[in-house]
């Protein structure tokens, strides 16, 4: 009986672990454990924002060690990672970041997130967009999904 | 509440204390830190797993992670490993959610012989019930104080 | 007959004719494992509850006595036994199986010696030809009743004790004057309940030690024996701490024996590699050590006269949670080898 239970557990575990990964690029995997410093991405929109400048502004905050910036129309997604021991002050860092961005670039709508998952998705999107002839429609839809994911509660 | 001790009782208790083996508090703390820490590392790995392979954010990954950790502690309890871990880890294995799972599941296993309704159903929260009752109640009190405090300011 | 304040001396020398012991898996790996009659290799013992397994322990122990002594139910007048679980259902049910007129007794872990003293008294005064007496306990059943569920991962302090899984039973009857090397019950002392105000159920040895010291001291007073009269004195299940404390209490009252002679049944069962914190405990502890190891040692001639003082903590999970202290009791029984050199 014990053996039967054990085999059942093994079975469940193997089924769980053999799921097809949702994020599967090398960069995304690497970003789980270290800074990957991705290029800013511009998907669409009338006027391209000074993305490099935004990125360096964000990196100027010393608690933040990795940042991904993606623009889609008026919306700019800023996903960032906070240094481990500064994670206690997560909220105040976010507040600081939002004030800086809104003050310096008032024309855009910023979505900031320190969430690991949002960062992973941003990296993934970055990787795909940089490929040749990735359809713009698809990228826009993906961006929308990330925004929805970010707003999701519990 | 404590009854007044008679002098001979007091005298005996002093003598008894002299012989009583003390709990190795410092060593226990270290072990609790290591065991508790390891459990949390596993928990972190599980939540990264869910974030990486599924559509969960840091905000939403809590629920599936807790469920998985309780599932693990259920297996360990069922195979008779968790109580040994508890003897080593003490608070380190009792405080994380796996300890809660262990309290629920051990009671369920224990009372299976009394039937599923009155035995398992009636006793499953024998140990964990106190945690739920006082956890919910103290959360309520703290929330109440916070609300009043914010209204005051 | 009554001797002194609270002791009996048995001049007709009721003998322990046969004894039997049944042990659980953990005890079966201990120091005295090869002295048990039956050793089960798992706690369930193929029953579907721990309580039923406990009942099986008692049934097996009594059955072993029947086989060893070539006697049947009809030859035994009374069964005097007890255990720790819920109004003693395991022993009660076993008594129902074996259909011997039955007296159920409870003195927590002192039940074993209480039963032996009572059985000896009845046999001594001609109230019965043969009486079976003993006590038993089951680790998982007791844990469940007195502490937490078996699989619960609580941390036990070093003062905690391990409830033994086992049963020890003896057949008490008239001694045969012709026969050599018979263990007989010489005397016994019934203890008072002593409450030193301790409340920690994880330190029962410490709570029970004064009761043991009191009973042992009174035994020597009542029977006016020299302090070195016995080859060994065994306390029931005081564990390391309780044994140490009881020894010191006796020394304080001017009672002098050598340290090696003052042993504890709870410390004789398990090997050093077994994690039992302070030692074994439970109603079965003193019973199955006496009815296996100690009697065997006496038959081998290592001990001529021993005093066994079983201690019991008379509390319940309810009384403990209501903040009551732990009152304790101890009964002592002296066993001598008849037919040996005086």
Walk me through this protein's architecture.
The complex is a heterotrimer of chains A (154), B (153) and C (342). Chain A has 154 residues and is α/β, with parallel strands linked by helices. Chain A has one domain: GMP Synthetase, Chain A, domain 3 (2-Layer Sandwich). Chain A has helices at residues 2-17, 26-31, 51-60, 90-104, 116-130, 136-151; strands at residues 41-44, 64-72, 75-82, 109-113. In chain A, helix 5 (116-130) runs antiparallel to helix 6 (136-151). The model of chain A has no long low-confidence stretch (mean pLDDT 83). Chain B has a domain at 41-127. Chain B has helices at residues 7-19, 25-53, 62-78, 82-89, 91-94, 97-110, 116-123, 128-152. Chain B starts with 6 loop residues before the first helix and ends with a helix. The mean pLDDT of chain B is 90. Chain C is α/β, with parallel strands linked by helices and 342 residues long. Chain C folds into two domains: 2-174, Peroxisomal Thiolase, Chain A, domain 1 (3-Layer(aba) Sandwich), CATH 3.40.47; 182-338, Stage V sporulation protein AD (Peroxisomal Thiolase, Chain A, domain 1). In chain C, the strands form three sheets. A seven-stranded mixed beta sheet of chain C has the order 1-2-10-15-14-11-12, sandwiched between helices. A six-stranded mixed beta sheet of chain C has the order 4-3-9-7-5-6, with helices on both faces. A two-stranded parallel sheet of chain C has the order 8-13. Chain C is globular. Classes of the chains: A alpha/beta (154), B mainly alpha (153), C alpha/beta (342). Chains in contact: A-B, B-C. The B-C interface holds B 1-3, 5-6, 8-10, 12-13, 15-16, 19-24, 28, 77-78, 80, 82-87, 89-91, 93-94, 99, 102-103, 105-107, 109-111, 113, 126-127 and C 48-51, 144, 148-159, 195-198, 203, 206, 209-210, 240-241, 244-245, 248-249, 275, 278, 323, 325.
Question: Main attributes?
Answer:
heterotrimer; A: 51% helix; globular; C: 342 residues; alpha/beta; Peroxisomal Thiolase, Chain A, domain 1
